[in-house]
Amino acid sequence: MTTRKKLMLLFLLTSFAFTACSKASAGVAPEKTAAQTAALQEAAPSSSQEAEPTEALPTSSGPEESSRSNEQKSAGRTAVVYFSATGTTAEIARLIAEETGADLLEIVPETAYTSEDLNYHDDNCRANREMNDDTARPAISSDFSHLSEYSVIYVGHPIWWGTAPRIIQTFFESCDLSQATVYTFCTSGGSGIEQSVKDLQNLYPDVNIVSGKRLNGASAADVKSWISSLD
Ligand SMILES: Cc1cc2nc3c(=O)[nH]c(=O)nc-3n(C[C@H](O)[C@H](O)[C@H](O)COP(=O)(O)O)c2cc1C
Description:
Blueprint lengths: L2 H23 L8 H10 L9 H4 L6 H13 L1 E6 L5 H13 L2 E4 L19 H6 L18 E9 L7 H8 L7 E7 L6 H10 L4 E7 L5 H10 L2
Parallel strand pairs: 1-2, 1-3, 3-4, 4-5
The structure holds flavin mononucleotide.
């Protein structure tokens, strides 16, 4: 291939990568998705294959290409997943879903938490017992097997004893988040989210948990401003 053709190919590949990334960030997060990376790898000719740019880059709308765009479409989806024992986090989750156009998915415990379960003044209440047991993984009844389709996931939870409730660990361990960019949010009586973000990052180093935000009493405008700060 001539140097001019090589330069042209490089330019076309760079433009394609930029366009792919811009489309992904139209939702929230600018991270390149697996599908985009795969599309780029497919588009680039291997060193042993001397291909012209017009042959190397997708130019037709044949069946192969339309199946690739469908994958990209589903890989670019956004979800808001939340657990809320008393409704405070649920309200914020709803605002985030409205702001981002995301799918709203609740982490539903198999056994709902009663007010006695949540009475943290009682050392022996269910919530405290779970938080005192590193291995506790309260069962959830929601199905999250399709979450690998999402490239951006907001995970919301209340703070229990300075961190996320154990049911959030059940959630992280019940689905494949390896391709997703994850942001967490919480509500609490005053504690921040920092410890919970650190704990989750340590527990799940293979998941891209970027940052978290405490959003008690947030308005739609507050949520909007947080979301746009993530771009
Ligand atoms: C078992 C338990 C432990 C809690 N621990 C904390 C805590 O450490 N710090 C804090 O600020 N709030 C704590 N809270 C208060 C909740 O984080 C707060 O009420 C939250 O907004 C509830 O969210 P939800 O309605 O979505 O469940 C605790 C609540 C419970 C039930």
